[in-house]
Design brief:
The chain has helices at residues 2-16, 19-26, 30-44, 60-86, 106-117, 130-138, 184-187, 200-211, 225-234, 281-297, and strands spanning 49-52, 55-58, 92-98, 121-127, 144-148, 156-164, 167-171, 193-195, 220-222, 239-241, 254-258, 267-274. With 298 residues, it is an alpha/beta fold. It is elongated.
Length: 298
Amino acid sequence: MRHLLIYDMIEAVHRSGSIRKAAEDTNITASALNRRIQAFEAEFGSEIFERLPRGMRLNPAGELLLHHIRMQRQDMSRVHSQVADLSGIRRGHVKIACSQALLPYFLPREISNYRAEFPDVTFSVNVRDRIQAERDLVSFDSDLALVFEPAHMVDFEVLHAVHQPVMAVMSQGHPLASRKTLRLRDCLEFDLVLPAQQFGVRMLLDQASARLGRKLEPVLETDSFDMVRHFAAYGQGIGFQIPVGLNTRARPEMAFVPIAETDVRGGELFLGHLKGRTLPVAALKFASQVVSALNEMG
């Protein structure tokens, strides 16, 4: 494991951009750290850092090495999980990048269910848009991604996809609340609260309104789906969300009505990981549970 120590040092220099700051992070002197880096470069047969007037930066060889380091760490994590499985113990840490819609109900429930069976597994969940999610996977900052209507993701291995219609969100007292389905043109006659433009739901709405020759003019635009729901609940406004982000039993004062797909096509909620990567056991088992939960949702 001694080689992992120098890897830690290389990553520390990469993160901080200087020997001095990295030395503080790794609790050794700057001169000692510099000697360790130089000795590694001599053994490696190539310099991995550019020495700049204001610090250190990885060169192309260093970028390749950093990717190798991260791959080795993930492989070691996978082996640890597999060894733990041999003794019947589930351990590990699962890192998830997800669309905001997964936060209120779906992921808290699924993580809680998983940990009821495997309490030694921990999780981290970070909200990411479609582009950020792929970056997280490539950099190994996330094991899994759950994203709605992702952009073209070259390095994304799809494990499962489930269709999600766009739902109108409003108070039970709204004039349109009793409808079984809604046309987009009906919604445009009321105050709109819309998710910000980086979200997949907004992209689908913008495309649909353009086909109608209309422009969406929200009274409120936000990057928070909680804000969308709460604003709609208090007045005559209409918000928009996908089913995985809603819970009708938790909000009986609200109505959730699907928009006709002839007006606004639905999108896909994708579960996946970095293409070509072997997931740690804990992440793989959690992914399997998520697939089952999504199928049960229909």
